[in-house]
Amino acid sequence: MSERLYIFDTTLRDGEQAAGCQLNRIEKIQLAKALEELGVDVIEAGFPVSSPGDFESVTAISKAVSEPVICALSRAVEGDIDAAAQALRFARRGRIHTGIGTSDMHIRYKFNSTREKILQQAVDAVAYARNLIDDVEFYCEDAGRTDNVYLAQVVEAVIRAGATVINIPDTTGYCLPEEFGQKIRFLKENVDGIDKVLLSVHCHNDLGMATANTVQAVLNGARQVEVTVNGVGERAGNTALEEIAMIMHNHRELGIDTGIRTRKLFHTSRMVSSLMNMPVQPNKAVVGRNAFAHSSGIHQDGVIKLRETYEILDPRDVGMLDNSLVLTARSGRAALKKRLLSLGVDLDKDELDLAYDSFLKLADVKMDISDDDILKIAGRSADSQAPVRLDWLKVVSGKGVGHEAEVRLIVNGEAHEAHSAGNGPVDAAIKAVKMIIQRKMTIREFLIQAMDKGSDDTGKVHMQVEYEKCLYYGFAANTDIVTAAVEAFVNAVNKFYK
Ligand code: KIV
Ligand code: ZN
Q1: Which residues lie with the beta carbon below 6 Å from any ligand 1 atom?
Q2: Which ligand 1 atom sits nearest the alpha carbon of residue 10?
Q3: Spacing, Cα 140 to ligand 2 middle (Å)
Q4: Contacts of 319 by beta carbon, 8 Å cutoff, 6+ apart
Q5: What's the predicted TM-score (pTM) here?
Q6: Displacement of CA 210 from its chain's centroid (Å)
Q7: Is the dihedral of CA 343, 347, 353, 355 positive or negative?
Q8: pLDDT tens figures, 174-220
Q9: Whose CA is nearest to atom 4 of ligand 1?
């Protein structure tokens, strides 16, 4: 009889904290529904006190999703806990995730406090939260660098105060796998009441050890893991959900099952990648484009003789579909829809019509339409709702003729035009956009990348724009890189422009 490992997905909270990965409410609901279908046990939907947008998203997800527990993050302070409880009021099963830093580093430099006071604040927070909701998870932030004896005291005290789940995060991704596994064992052996609660771990990937640390923790008694799709998250990210799911699926000798429907992993991975504009690295374990590609002759020979010689995972088990259907200018809507579905994008009829128009335009100028192209085409239709849209752009640029641009933007439904010169075509076009938008904005980062190869390729532009001391991320892709640059700028502007 195998044991159950609970999957706590934090793509919508820790994952969304990753630079440039912010989602709007509609996108969060779409992703929450996909996570429900994937079979996660808990969805951490946001940090309600952090902004009205986060609060509303937690409420909306609580209404839209019924199977998983919906969890809301808070610090160990009453205002945060109240906001979390309020945001969760429609959840069929809600959980408040409260906690505080327990390492001496956090206690001393972050809180200017003492171990005794922090322990008391932890107990008070849990008791307060338990008056509002039955399910309270407590996190000991920076547990990876917390002294084990003190950590055990905090954990025991919050269990006595009513915590139902204990989360041990390696917040900074510092621990070695064996060290982290021993920390979990130490708590299992030294905390009264530990067997009455669910023991959870939450690892970061700063040294590339998030998955190894999580597995060691499971081998030492943790029964909930906090993970994100594609491993997205703060800095180097969190433990990747798909890696843990496939480790447990493959290593049957461990006798541990998750409820993940593994055949939905690829679809969910691509949905997260497209919604967050965060490409999946080609060699990413389990879901990367090359995860099942054998290129050396020796390997190919082996795989032809027997797949298992070089493949420990079956691509079908993670839902990698057959992409042999080549998309060209002669492909119909049905073929485009089928490919989009396999990439995790389900468009309604109007959106599909829009995407199909863009697809035909691209297919006319580009022979090889890649999955990235398709995703960008589909993403483009969502921009039609944005307050600022690029309607038209003309550039005159070249050696000896200077650089000038004329731009027409649709701003809240009204057309505005401007003309500017610059030190290059992009500079001229962005200056013209700025003349229309009339806000003090500075480009802090500007990255142009070709998607495939060849001069007919689509260019991707990532941009960071500073406005009122905040950085806003913009992305666009187009076969014309000047247009892509302007669209990426407009995409960033739309994050703050009302
Ligand atoms: O990394 C961390 O410690 C966290 C906590 C808020 C759970 O994300
Ligand atoms: Zn974290």
Answers
A1: 14, 139, 141, 167, 169, 171, 202, 204
A2: 8
A3: 11
A4: 262, 263, 264, 265, 266, 267
A5: 0.74
A6: 16
A7: negative
A8: 999 999 999 999 999 999 999 999 999 999 999 999 999 999 999 99
A9: 171
